[in-house]
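Colleagues,

For the teaching module next term, I've prepared a clean inverse folding example: a structure given as tokens, and then the sequence designed for it. I'd like students to try predicting residues themselves before seeing the answer, so please don't circulate the second half yet.
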């Protein structure tokens, strides 16, 4: 059996709702894997906002997956990415934008890409985010669009409460119909709890605007000692949840 450092894993970040926090999740996941001693390759395929690429410490490569029409996948570029995933080593974190969500998801399904990856010894996880407040309905719909595809077998759901509680008509996510119908597809869930807007939220905003990792913040005098302490608590909480999934 391959050890954690030897396993080949592809982590696709997919969600059809724009501004849902996909790049934030990609950033957190990539850092967790790196601190776990895993060789990580980071790829940004968002054709509109290359936020993930802005994290210089993560050495993110940008790939233009969409063709000239911006509605279809450039098959040559995607085939090259698949080749890298099949022939390469370590983990890949692949961020994707809202505009390329449907083309990429459709291309993966139509080409049976996940089966091909699994047959090459590469585990595949689909990460999607569900937001509270006004984005709840759209992000839950995005989860359902993924979960109803037979090829997507291991889904990691990120419950992002940053904008509000994830609750609909008195029901939390694991009480909703979407979970009842597709809960068997969920490999694990990561909860990002709502924090004090004047402290934790402001610290996270400062970190993400500067495109800094937790490791960089720990040595950055622009962050106060208390801010660094709060961000370390956020890191430990998120990484602890990821660790329990054995990704």
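(Answer key — instructors only)
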């Amino acid at each position: 059996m391959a050890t954690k450092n030897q396993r080949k894993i592809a982590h696709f970040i997919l969600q059809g709702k724009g501004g849902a926090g996909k790049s934030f999740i990609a950033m957190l996941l990539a850092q967790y894997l790196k601190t776990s001693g895993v060789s990580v390759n980071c790829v940004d395929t968002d054709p509109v906002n290359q936020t993930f690429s802005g994290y210089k410490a993560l050495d993110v490569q940008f790939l233009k997956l969409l063709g000239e029409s911006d509605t279809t996948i450039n098959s040559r570029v995607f085939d090259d990415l698949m080749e890298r995933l099949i022939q390469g080593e370590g983990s890949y974190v692949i961020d994707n934008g809202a505009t390329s969500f449907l083309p990429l998801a459709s291309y993966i399904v139509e080409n049976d890409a996940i089966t091909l990856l699994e047959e090459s010894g590469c585990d595949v996880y689909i990460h999607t985010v569900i937001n509270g407040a006004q984005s709840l309905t759209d992000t839950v719909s995005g989860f359902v669009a993924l979960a109803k595809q037979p090829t997507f077998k291991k889904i990691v759901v990120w419950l992002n409460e940053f904008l509000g509680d994830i609750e609909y008509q008195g029901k939390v996510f694991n009480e909703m119909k979407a979970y009842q119908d597709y809960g068997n597809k969920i490999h694990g869930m990561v909860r990002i709890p709502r924090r004090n807007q004047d402290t934790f939220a402001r610290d996270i905003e400062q970190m993400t605007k500067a495109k800094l990792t937790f490791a960089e913040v720990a040595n950055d005098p622009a962050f106060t000692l208390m801010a660094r302490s709060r961000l370390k608590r956020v890191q430990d909480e998120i990484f602890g949840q990821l660790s329990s999934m054995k990704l």
